[in-house]
């Protein structure tokens, strides 16, 4: 555990494991999502941007190779010895025929064999087949995989409100399938979803603790331009978390979180021009510093309230 931050950080994890700086390269493979194309729903999750929550990933008009090397070039100027984790971020990156997925994943690994430490794949729990699980099990033996699954909230009423179109049961089953194949799972959650209480957000941590999950990303809700959620907010406003509220809830969640879970992220990312409300997440470093400050002030460590 990072003694300065009082929780398990990804930077320290990689430092201990590989003794090198490891950087993620967010990619956009131009997929879609069953919650957009009508298979499960239309219009997507209400908060999701037109870029499939991959706004800070590479440009989908460029090939994956171009996206990868463009970012690698920028990162290596700062960290010449860095290793990389290509991260398929936008949309649902297991939502395609198996042959297409194989070509994509293995093509990425071929790009920079010596310098790729892991492959991270963001997707939905309902975008897997038995054949895909079996293939991922084999791929995971060649290169460590990290499958990132959107949960957002464990409250099924909230899930319905945000049009997640995926049940907690599907999430639980997917985690089980992946974990029995030794594949790492990272859950994404959002604090501040419409009308969620602090109790709901803490309950989401309990839900994550009840599963064999390796990592977590916690984001604050962003109201983005051209989203269903922003339209709904204009018609019927709901409370938006202030920085102080987000920090206070997140610190409580960290205290409740299983001590073995790695914290990948504690702040949201978005394109400045697209963020309508709130504006404070734009100062990502401030958000993270405020969380660290409160953890230290209250002398709270990850897992203090885990039971
Ligand atoms: S599952 Fe992901 S990509 Fe699909 S609509 Fe929801 S947030 Fe967007």
Strand order of the largest sheet: 1-2-3-4-5-6-8
Number of domains: 1
Tell me which CATH architecture applies here: Alpha-Beta Barrel
**How many strand segments?**
9
Structural class: alpha/beta
Percent of residues in beta strands: 15-25%
CATH topology: TIM Barrel
Report on the biggest sheet: 7 strands, parallel
* Tally of DSSP helical segments: 10
Q: Overall mean pLDDT score?
A: 96
List all distinct small molecules, including ions and cofactors, that are bound in this structure: iron/sulfur cluster
CATH uppermost class: Alpha Beta
State the distance separating the first and last CA atoms: 18 Å
Low-confidence stretches: none
- Percent range of helical residues: 25-40%
Under CATH, the homologous superfamily reads Aldolase class I
Shape: globular
Order of helices and strands: HEHEHEHEHHEHEEHHEEH
Radius of gyration: 19 Å
Question: Overview of this structure, please?
Answer:
It is a single chain. The chain is an alpha/beta fold and 307 residues long. It is 38% helix and 16% strand. It has helices at residues 10-18, 64-78, 98-111, 130-142, 156-161, 168-179, 198-209, 228-235, 243-256, 284-297; strands at residues 22-27, 83-88, 119-123, 145-152, 184-191, 215-220, 223-224, 262-265, 275-277. The protein has a seven-stranded parallel sheet with strand order 1-2-3-4-5-6-8, with helices on both faces. The chain is globular, with a radius of gyration of 19 Å. The two termini are 18 Å apart. The protein binds iron/sulfur cluster. The site of iron/sulfur cluster has 12 residues, from loops.
């Amino acid at each position: 555990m990072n003694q300065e931050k009082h929780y398990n950080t990804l930077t320290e994890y990689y430092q201990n494991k590989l003794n090198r700086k490891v950087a993620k390269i967010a990619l956009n493979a131009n997929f879609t999502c069953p919650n957009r194309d009508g298979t499960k729903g239309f219009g997507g999750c209400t908060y999701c941007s037109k870029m499939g929550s991959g706004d800070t990933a590479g440009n989908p008009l460029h090939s994956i190779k171009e996206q990868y090397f463009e970012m690698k070039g920028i990162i290596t100027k700062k960290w010449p010895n860095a290793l990389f984790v290509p991260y398929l971020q936008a949309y649902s990156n297991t939502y395609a025929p198996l042959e297409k997925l194989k070509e994509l994943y293995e093509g990425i690994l071929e790009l920079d064999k010596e310098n790729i430490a892991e492959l991270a794949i963001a997707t939905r729990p309902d975008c897997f087949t038995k054949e895909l699980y079996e293939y991922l099990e084999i791929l995971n033996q060649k290169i460590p995989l990290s499958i990132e699954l959107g949960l957002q909230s464990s409250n099924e009423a909230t899930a319905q409100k945000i049009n997640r179109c995926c049940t907690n049961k599907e999430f639980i089953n997917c985690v089980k399938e992946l974990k029995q194949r030794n594949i790492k799972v990272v859950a994404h959650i959002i604090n501040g979803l419409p009308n969620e209480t602090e109790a709901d957000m803490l309950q989401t941590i309990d839900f994550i603790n009840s599963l064999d999950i390796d990592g977590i990303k916690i984001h604050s809700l962003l109201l983005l331009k051209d989203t269903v959620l922003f339209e709904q907010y204009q018609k019927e406003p709901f409370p938006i978390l202030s920085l102080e509220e987000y920090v206070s809830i997140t610190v409580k969640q960290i205290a409740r979180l299983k001590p073995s879970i790695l914290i990948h992220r504690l702040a949201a990312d978005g394109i400045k021009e697209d963020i309508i409300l709130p504006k404070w997440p734009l100062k990502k470093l401030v958000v993270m510093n405020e969380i660290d400050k409160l953890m230290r002030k209250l002398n709270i460590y990850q897992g203090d309230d885990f039971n």
